[in-house]
Write a structure and sequence with these properties.
This protein is α/β, with parallel strands linked by helices. It is about 50% helix and about 10% strand.
Amino acid sequence: MQQQLTAPLKRIRLGRNPRTYFDPKKMAEITESIRAHGVDTPIIVRPVVEEDYDFEVIAGGRRYRGALDAHGGDYAMPITVRVVDDVEARRIALTENIQRDDLSPAEEAVDAAELLGLHGGDRDVTAKILGWSRSTLDGRLALLNCSTAVLDALSQRQISIAHAELLAALSKENQDRVLPVVVAEKRSAADVRKLVESASCALASAIFDKADCAGCPHNSSTQAQMFGEAIGTGNCTNRACFNEKTEKQLETIAVPLREEFQVVRIVRAGDNNTRVQLAVDGPKGVGLEQAKACHACSNYGAAVSGLPDAMGKVYRGQCFDTVCNMKKVGARIQAEKTATAPQKTAADKGKPGTKGAGAASATTVAASNPTATVVAESERVKSYRVKLWRKALRADIGMDHDLARQYLIAVVLSGHARQIDDAVYRKLFERITGTDSPIANLPKAVEAVQAASADAQSNLMIGMLFSAIDGLDVTYLTQLCKTHKLDLKKHWKLDKEFLELITKSEMMVLADELGIRAALGDSVKKVFAKSKPEVIEALLAVDGFDYAGKVPKVLKF
């Protein structure tokens, strides 16, 4: 949704600009051009409700600054208005900024990484939006592992992007050691590649077991002489083997974490913007209640670093949906502002740009009562609960012949008779009637039924319904459970089988929902610091806790 018009500059405020450096010479040229000819291309803004401003700049910060310097706050600025939220505004700003031809590669890398985060870490989608190839995007993101000195040298054209991308494979300390040699001696990218292929396989920094490396013929104790002693000694000259062992060790580190978190990812250069540390308070905090809910989200987990400076390091409590996190943080901040703002009078409510108490109350409630999925609906959990529903429904109907007959007729009337498995039912018939041979055709089936006792026929009606319950699709099974008003509290109690299906972070939220956390009291941190089997054992043996009648939301229909 957008429209084009003009607005006085004094009614427009600057938004968050991805560009952090403004070349003085170019800014002077822009200002003089605007002084002489005005602004031809509208800036992109979005509406804001503030006493002093009507709009916020999304894209066009340099034109805004140039016009303000040239003509002052009363200048009628051409604007294109877009009604978007914070996330979309940021996405537009990044895309507009990065597509300009005067950005340095370092600035492109920072913007591309943030845009990647806004698109859930999908590099293919991000590359398409930017009009780049995937290899170009990966190369830019790799620059984020460069030291400050290397990035400065790149911006000052002392080295090429090829040099910088190669140096990014080294630790920042080693980059700073090698850079002066590369610049002073004007080393080619091919020279740097040879160095990196050796130095990035330094055995001293290897995270895998090096027992087998001691006698390996690829274990070199000397560095490439072309760079003297710039980096150090003791490297593996078999890069493929070194990388394979490193990747295996990263995966080994990730394995136990998967018992604790729903998602565990190995992160590379540029991936930092695809994750954020979940915080409760502060400028990036989501609030206590939302943080508890986040522990059960399918995007909550841990990161294992695949970066040279932190290889193998584990970061727990990561949110991998940065857009959602931004919105939750914004909601918490807005709720706090609303809670501390003075209440509006009836007269104030009619004034433009003011919010009534009703709107404020709604905002506060929305932020303080987060929607949470207590346990992620994995395929294992879904299978468990459907099995539970079928079992509980059969147990609830029991031997109620009248009810079974009514439900069976309803199943046939609604067109679901075909979901009765005849092979399973035939075995049931044989067990109830004592018939040894299978019922091969309709006349024989009639004879067999007529020969069965009245009690057997009655039991077979219930058996037929049970067979139908086992065969119903989940949608229709859910409908039958609701119609029957099935009470799962009578048929389920927290058990080991269910807890083994979920992660430790989900168990923590489950403990909150069922009241187990409160029952554990101060020992809760100690309990959850243990291994998953030990946590399960502790959750099922809380002194004085009544487990009966407590069913988590994820198991309800």
